[in-house]
């Protein structure tokens, strides 16, 4: 093999390995696939809250990290907060729900 071919092959392997490592997840950072999955979960939770007539989707903020959904914002009653948590738990892909909602 020519020296330039060896160099290009080694460079390609190095770039491929660095790309794979750069997309992996850590305890505090999501991988690319996890980020996309969490975005889908967030969208589904927001849609489920919107479909619930007793809840106001504009009052509830939804964030997802590695399947854990955090609900925050201000709701009108403890019943509304409990209903939001209940609705969120029914969404496929939700591993757990963190309730940080406040009562106005």
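^ structure tokens above, recovered residues below v
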């Amino acid at each position: 093999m020519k020296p330039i071919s060896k160099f290009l092959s080694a460079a390609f392997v190095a770039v491929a390995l660095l790309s794979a490592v750069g997309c992996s997840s850590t305890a505090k950072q999501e991988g690319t696939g996890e980020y996309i999955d969490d975005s889908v979960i967030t969208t589904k939770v927001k849609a489920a809250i919107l479909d619930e007539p007793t809840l106001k989707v504009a009052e509830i903020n939804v964030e997802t990290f590695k399947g854990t959904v955090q609900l925050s914002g201000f709701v009108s009653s403890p019943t509304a907060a409990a209903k939001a948590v209940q609705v969120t738990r029914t969404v496929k892909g939700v591993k757990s729900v963190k309730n940080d909602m406040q009562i106005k």
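The two ends are 72 Å apart (CA to CA).
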